[in-house]
Design a protein that fits this description.
Layout: E1 4-6, E2 16-20, E3 23-29, H1 33-48, H2 57-69, H3 78-86, H4 90-117
Antiparallel strand pairs: 1-3, 2-3
Helix pairs in contact: 2-4, 3-4
């Protein structure tokens, strides 16, 4: 995710200080969300072993689902950044997000129906 380890004495208000047996040992400085999105996209590209724009439609939908779960679309220009990385339009990214939400809703509906049958 692009976090940086720093000395506890150098930690600021937004940094996370980690302690061991009551002693501060290290602090973690988390990157800004926009930087995190770039790191997540790079990680997904490494995992797939090729440019995200070269993935097929199903793989791109999976990438969008992962990114949505990680909050990528709450970042300013997140949809545009993802669309560019995938080599698709913003409209296509929104369609993938809608598809993911529909699949989740169907899965929840199936879970509720199976519970009602018990």
């Amino acid at each position: 995710m692009g976090a940086e380890l720093i000395a506890p004495a150098d930690a600021g208000g937004d940094d996370v200080v980690l302690s061991w047996e009551g002693h501060e040992v290290i602090a973690v400085r988390l990157p800004h969300l926009a930087d995190s999105l770039d790191h997540i996209l790079a990680d997904l590209q490494r995992r797939h072993g090729k440019a995200l724009s070269e993935l097929d439609r199903k793989e791109k939908q999976t990438v969008v689902r992962i990114l949505e779960e990680r909050g990528a679309f709450s970042v300013r220009h997140g949809v545009e950044t993802v669309a560019s990385a995938l080599g698709v339009s913003r409209f296509t990214v929104y369609n993938y997000i809608n598809y993911t939400n529909e699949q989740r809703a169907k899965a929840r509906g199936g879970d509720e129906q199976s519970r009602q049958g018990d």
